[in-house]
Amino acid sequence: MLNKIRRRLGLKFFISYFVVILVGIIVLISATEFTVPSAFDRHLAEMTEAMGPSAESLERDLFDNFRNAVNESLIISSAAAFIAAVLVSIFVTRQVVAPIRGIMEASQYIAEGHYDERVKLPDGVDHSDLDELGQLSVSFNQMTLQLEKGESLRKQLIGDIAHELRTPLSTIKGSLEGLIDGILPATNDTYHQVYQEADRLQRLVNDLQDLNRVESSAYQLDLAPVDIRRLIEKISKRLDLQFIEKQVRLSLSLSPTLPFVLGDEDRLTQVFVNLIGNSLQYTPAGGVVEITAQLDKNEISITISDNGIGIDSEHLPHIFTRFYRVDKSRSRAGGGSGIGLTIAKHLVESHGGVIKAASSGVGHGSTFSIRLPVMA
Ligand code: ADP
Predict the structure, then answer these.
(1) Which CB contacts under 8 angstroms, 24+ apart, belong to 62-71?
(2) Alpha-carbon distance 232 to 234, whole Å?
(3) Which residues contact 249 (CB under 8 A, 6 or more apart)?
(4) Were 263 and a residue from 98, 145, 226, 301 both cysteine, which residue would form a disulfide, CB within 3.0 to 4.6 Å?
C-alpha cells in the first residue's frame, strides 16, 4: 500500500487534501466538545437566573438538543468536505498528473528509439499561455524534434557514405575480376584505372575525416597574422599549371593595401584551393576565373568568380550541404565528393567569417564570396 502511494502522485494529492479536512474536522469536534459546553453553560446561567428554578430541566434539554444539532451538522459538513476532497484531487490529478504521465510515457517510447513521439498539447492554446507543465511539454517536444533530426542526419550520413564508397569499390572489384579472368588486358591503362579509383577512395576517406573533424570541432586553429593578398598569389602560382592545361585564364585583382587577418594559413589555403579548384573544374576551356580582394569597412571581401557552367537557383541553397552535388555523375567523375564546400563553410565560420554563393543561372557562371574580419 505504502509503495503504491509512493508511486502515485494522484493518491498523494488525495491524501494531502484528506489530511487537511481530517485536521479541520478534529479541530471542530474538539471545539464542540470542550469549548462549546462551557460557553453554552455561561450564557444559559444568565438566562436561568432571570427565569428562576423551573429553567433548570429546560437547560439540560436545550443543551442535549443543541449538541445533537451541532453533531448532525458536523457529520453533514464532514461528508461534504470528503466529497470535495475527492473531486478536487481528481481535478488536480487531471491537471498535473496527466501531463507528467504524458511526458513520462513519451520519454520511455523515445528511449526505445521512437524519435517521432510527441507529448500532446492542448488544442488551440497559444504556447506562451501554457502553465509551467505545458511549457515543459513544449520544451520536451522541441528536444525530441532535435533528437529526431539528429537521428535522421545520422542515418542519411551512413547511407551517403555507403553510397560514396560503393562506386569506386565496385569499379576496383570489377577491374580486378576482369584481370583475374583474363577479360581485361594487364596493361598500364587497366592498372592506371584501378589506381585512379583507389586514389578517389583515399581522397574520399580523407575528406570524410576532415568533415568529421570540422563538424565535431575537433581541430584547433593555429592562429597568426595572415596576409590574404600574398596567400592568394601563392595559391594561384601553385594552380597556374592546371589552369594552363585546361586553357582557363586566371585573373587576380587584389587591393595592394590589405590589412592582415588573424587566421590559420593552412586552413585558409584549404578553403581557397577548394573554391578556386571548383571554379576551374566547372569552367570549360576558354573561360575565365577571377579572384578579387578588397577592404570593406573592417572586413576583407574576397570573391572567386567564373564564367563556367553556373548553378541553378534551385540548387544554390543546398551546395554547402555535405554530399550535395548539382550534377552527380559529372562531379563524381571529376573526383568530387560534395564535401569540399561543407568543410570550407565550417572553416570560414570558425574564422568569424561568412561564405556565400551566387549564380545568375546555368551557363552564366558562379561567384563565391568570403568576408573575413580584419585583425584588431
Ligand atoms: P565537389 O567536391 O563535388 O566539387 P563541393 O562541396 O566542393 O563538392 O561542391 C558542391 C557542388 O557545388 C559541386 O558538386 C558542384 O555541383 C557545385 N559547385 C561548386 N562550385 C561550383 C562552381 N564554381 N560552378 C558550378 N558549380 C559549382
Answers:
(1) 63/37, 66/40, 67/32, 67/36, 70/32, 70/36, 71/32
(2) 5
(3) 243, 287, 288, 289
(4) 226
pLDDT value for 333: 54
Nearest to 348 by CA among 297, 306, 299: 299
pLDDT in tens, 294-309: 999 999 999 999 999 9
Task: Give pLDDT tens digits for 342-374.
Answer: 999 999 999 999 999 999 999 999 999 999 999
Handedness of CA 271, 273, 277, 279 (dihedral sign): positive
Ligand 1 centroid from CA 144, angstroms: 33
Residues lining ligand 1, Cβ inside 6 A: 274, 278-279, 282, 306, 308-309, 311, 319, 324-327, 331, 336-342, 366
The model's pTM: 0.65
User: What is the best residue among 239, 275, 326, 367 to mutate for testing ligand 1's pocket, by most ligand atoms within 8 Å of CB?
Assistant: 326
Nearest protein CA to atom 11 of ligand 1, as residue: 325
Pick the closest to residue 163 from 351, 330, 337 (CA basis). Answer: 337
* Whole-number pLDDT of residue 54: 67
Expressed in angstroms, the distance from the first to the final Cα of the chain is 70
- pLDDT (0 to 100) of residue 207: 86
Closest CA to 7 of 136, 101, 111: 101
C-alpha–C-alpha distance, residues 325 and 334, integer Å: 11
Nearest CA among 139, 144, 137 for reference residue 121:
137
pLDDT less than 50: residues of the chain: none
Q: What is the DSSP letter of 311?
A: -
Torsion angle of C-alpha atoms 35, 36, 37, 40, degrees rounded to 10: 130
H-state helical runs in 182-259: 188-215, 228-246
Distance of CA 74 to the CA centre of its chain: 59
